[in-house]
Every structure is written in structure tokens, then in C-alpha cells.
Amino acid sequence: MEWPTTALEVLSEKPLTVKNPKTWHHTHSYGGWGKFYQGLREKKILATRCTNPECAEKRLWLPPRCECPDCWHPMEWVEAPQTGTVYTFSTVTYPGELFKLPPGTPLISLEIEGVGTKLMSWMKEGKPSFGLPVKAVFNTDNPTHTILDLAWVPA
Amino acid sequence: MIKFGPGNLRIPKFEKPVYCVAGGQTDYRKKYWEKNTSELCIEALRMAVEENDLKVDPEEFRRMVNWVVYSQFADHFGDQLLAAAKIHDYLGFDPLGNIEVKTGGATGGSSVLAAAQAVASGYANCVPVVGWERMDDVSTKVGNSYIASAACKDFESELGWMYTAYYALMAQRYQYENEVPRETLAQIACKNHEYAIYSPFSQNPGKYTIEDVLKNEMVSDPLSFLECCVMSVGAAVLILCDEETAYKLSDTPIKISAICGGSHTLRTADRRDMPILLLPNETEETYKDYKGKRRREWPGFSSFLAARMAAYLAYNMAGIKDPCEDLDLLETHDAFTISDIQTYEDIGLRPYGRGREFIESGDAYYEGRLPTNLSGGLIGTMHAVGATGIFQLVEILWQLQNKWAKFHANPEMWTRFGKKKPAEFRDLQLKNPKRGCAISHAGTGSHVTCAIFEKP
Closest by alpha carbon to B176, among A124, A109, A95? Predict the structure, then answer.
């Protein structure tokens, strides 16, 4: 048998410190939530609503869930409105690795009529402010198949 | 809306009293290539066993241990699954049973909770809790990405891959609802960086003015670098025992009168309005004017339900009526200046909307009513995540045992870590403190524990 031909790069001799390369990918299934991302390709914001008539929570869930956390009943998919208002915002100057947008991208959380949650998203154009009315835009040409395929601009 | 049933708010109780006898830690560094993780853990354990005036020698101590709890946030960082097994063997506890706990930033607090449960139930009577994090294997940018993979990767991580940004969204909303000047936030940063000057364990000490903080570069507005916790490597250890074992080991054991946990949705987005859960020092009257045009809901983005839950349970368990009166010192999870103010309200130091008064009044300082983060906290001293909740309680233990100076003022402790004790040193030992509290916190408030340590 031969010795291995690939070696770890030595970063320091004292203490001996080496570099372990990692080059593989992770597979990720969105499972039942995949419908949401597929909806974005058709310029639809798909949310879910509990089907249990006895359940007190009548509002939409966005991010969607397949089961209601309050009563564990199945949810149904419903198209959410494509307008909302900015609930809060921040401009991230130093994002982490993997961020697909440039530093300086305004992040927002949204209030949408009839939705009980406050979806986190980003603004593609304009400057965010509290209560600013915004409308949805969709990345349908080269979708990333992530939450970033949905963004907002001033309405 | 979250509706509590009668079982949901049951006040926890220990079947047997639980004590803490010793604590130890390494210093904390951004990069600690000099020592591998096992070496850091044994260093912290040896400090706990050999330097806390225990009445038994290390060999006898090892023969008393019957269960061990390990505390590490992210396997991603150390790139070693089952690291706890490797460390357990290295510490010489093989083949005793052990368990590793993981609840994000609150992992340290949860690990102490798990150890306390083991002692309280009678399952074990001598339990070391060993926590660490090795965050120097990757760049800061990748490290932030790893931490952000503890947000919802389907709907939130992609929006920045940066926890500071998720906190900044809360910070903006909090400031909008409560009109807290940035100067007040900066005061917290100045305080904790300064207290870190007096700790040989600290990573990021410094004397800063409010102006320095205000001019500091933004990570994600309104949070600047000086207002964010550090990313650290290091380890911390606590030893928990039942009463009989505690007095066999120590003349000054400290009682754990409560340690309790709460949770809330990992996604900040999913937090729905609900009635405020009232602490013993609050009534419906406290909040009759709470809601208004800007502050339309609770907990919203301004408050941490998990922290409120943990404090509710722990205060009731420990018999605390008013935290500012009944506690003598506090360690908060000051990952960001803004979350510190939010926490002041969640744990009842001031009513919701008035958290700023706790720092502005001077209450939070060494000289104040409830000195907070004399350790330097996460902003000044450390956030080696799995060790953090343990570090907070080590510092509280030493204060309650009147041993702060032994571990902070001794010049030998400084030279041990390659540092020189500062010429302008301040003694931060409190005058005979009786009861301390520590808040360990994960996510944007996904898990929080509240621990109350007191002199028996």
C-alpha cells in the first residue's frame, strides 16, 4: 500500500495546527413546506390556515406550517395578500458567510392583513421605515429556491 | 394566542435541596490554538476541584462523582461529534454515566438545570457540569454563519446569516416602541467592557466613553461592534451536590434555591400577542396603560416570553417577591446591549417599557441596588457559548462565597493567563451578598433559564 497523496496544510508548527478542508454539500428537503417556495416561482405567497373549525386561531401562518401548533389539525394552503407594512428593519453591514446578498441589504419584518405572524424578509428597493406600505416582488428568472426569492418594494 | 393551562405554570420543586460547592474556568480568548478542548476542560475542572478550598483531595473527589453533565452549543464549531465522550474520558470520569445538553446560547444554564435535577431527584449526589466552546476553528464570518444556523434555516437564516441582524430587528422595534436613546444602550456596553478590565479571564476589556460606542462601526444598525458579545474559546465548570455531600466537600456551599427554564418560538416571526404573564412584583394595574399606538402587543419583538417564563417559575420557586430588593447581584446574558434592556423588563427589574431606568438610575452598577454583570458579561469577558451559562454562575458562586478577590485580584491568576494585573485595579467583591441570579439565554429568546443561588 502507498502512503496517502493528499496532505493537510500546516498553519502553524507550534502548536501544530492544520487545515481540514470541507468541500461537500448538504441535501435539504423542504418537505411539506416546499409548496411555499414553488409558489414563489408563480408569484404567489402561499400561507396556511388551520382547518379545525373549533380552533381559535383563524389567522394565516406565514411562514407556513402543515400542522396547527394550537390543535395539531392539518392546515390548508391559502394565498396571502401581496401587500403589507414594515414592522421593523435593520441594515446588515457585516453579514455572515453564505449570505447571498451584498452588505447593506435592508432586512425587514412585515405585518400583513389577516396574517398572525410577522414574516422576515428584505427590501429590494427603497428605504425601510416603520409602517411603510410595501408590495411583494418575486425572483422568478433565476430563483435561488430560498426565502430570498421573495422581496418587497415601496407600494 | 398562547393560553396557559393549570399544569403549564406549575412551580417546579426539588425533592432534595441542591448545592453548589465549587467553580472553575479558563481564561477566554478569540483564538486558543495553544490548547485543545480537552485540555481547556481539565484546566477548568482542576481549578474547581483544587482551588476552591474543598476538604477532600482530587483523588477522593474523583471517587465521589456519580454523574457528569456536559455543555456544548454547536458540534459545528469543534467539528467533533461526541466531543463530550472524549472529554469525559480525558477528565478521568470514565466509565461513569454522563449526558450532553444542547439549548443554543442557554446551553450552560440548561446544563446546570439538568445537573440540579439529577441531584434534586436523588439520582446523583455529586455532579460536575463541564461546559466549553471552541469557536476558533473557523473565521468570524463562518462562525457567524454557524451561529445563524441556530435560526430557522428555512425561513430566517438566509436573511443575513447573522444573529446580530435578527437582534437588530428587535432592537429597532424596541426603540420605536419605548424610545430608548442610544446613549442608554451605550452605557451598558461601557459598563461591561469596564468590569472586564478587572477580570483575568476576560477577552475584551476596555475603558470606553459613550461617545466611543456611538461612533463605533455598525454590525447591523442600531448595534455596533462594542455593543455585541465576543466570540470565544474557553471552558467553565461547576460542582453540584446534595446537602450531605456539599458539607463534606465545603464549609461554604451555596444553595441553588431555584433554576427554571422557559421557551418561545425559534422564529421571531411566529410570536403572537398574549396577555402579560405577571411576576410577583407586578399586578394588572402595572400594565393598564401598557398598550398604545406604537406598543400594540406583548411580547412582540420587544420582550422575551422565555425569560419571563423562567423568571416567573424561578421567583416563585425561590420565594422572590421583588428582584431588585431580594437579589444582591445579577448576571444577564448581555449578548447585545438591547437584549440586556429587554431582559431587565422580562425579569421584573422594571415594568415593561421602562427597562432603561435600571441602567440610567445606576442600579445596575457595582455601587447600585443590583450590581449586574460585574464579571464583564458576554460583551466584555466571554461568550464561549457552552461555557457561558456556567461562567455566569461560577462568578456568582465566588461572589456569594466572598472569594471574588481570590480569583480576580491575585496577580498570579493574571500571570497564569499571560497577562499583567492592571495598575488601576478595582475590587468588585460585594459586601456580604446573600443571593444572586443568572439568566442564560438562547436564540432570539428560544430558551432561557433563570437560576437563583443563595447562602444557606
Answer: A109
Burial B26-54 (b: 16+ CB within 10 A, else e): bbbbeebeebbbbebbbbbbebbbeebeb
3-state secondary structure (DSSP) of residue A52:
coil
- Phi and psi for A112 in degrees, rounded to 5? -130, 135
How many domains are contained in chain A? 1
pLDDT tens readout for residues B64-99: 999 999 999 999 999 999 999 999 999 999 999 999
DSSP codes, A6-21: --PEEEEETTEEEE--
Q: What's the pLDDT score for residue A22?
A: 86
pLDDT band at B1 (very low <50, low <70, confident <90, very high): low
Buried/exposed code over B190-225 (b: 16+ C-beta within 10 A; e: otherwise): bbbbbbbbbbbbbbbbeeeebebbeebebbbbbbbe
A43 lies in a domain? yes
Of A12, A15, A120, the CB nearest to B159: A120
- Whichever domain contains B104, its CATH number is 3.40.47.10
Contact B141 A63 (CB under 8 A): no
Quote the CA–CA distance of B404 and B112 in Å, as a whole number.
Answer: 21
Check CB contact of A119 with chain B, cutoff 8 Å.
Answer: yes
Provide the residue range defining the domain that includes A42.
31-154
Question: Residue B193 domain-assigned?
Answer: no
- Establish if A120 touches chain B: CB-CB under 8 angstroms: yes
Q: Could B301 and A94 be called an inter-chain contact, meaning their C-beta atoms sit closer than 8 Å?
A: no
At A20-47, the pLDDT tens digits run: 998 899 999 999 999 999 999 999 999 9
Is residue B245 in some structural domain?
A: yes
> Confidence band (pLDDT; 50, 70, 90) for A107?
very high
ipTM of the complex: 0.95
Contact A90 B172 (CB under 8 A): yes
Using DSSP's 3-state secondary structure scheme, residue A135 falls into strand
Q: Distance between CA atoms of B143 and B333, rounded to whole angstroms?
A: 19
CB contact under 8 A, A12 and B145: no
Would you say residue B297 lies in a domain? no
Cβ–Cβ under 8 Å, residues B317 and B260: yes
Count of domains observed in chain B: 1
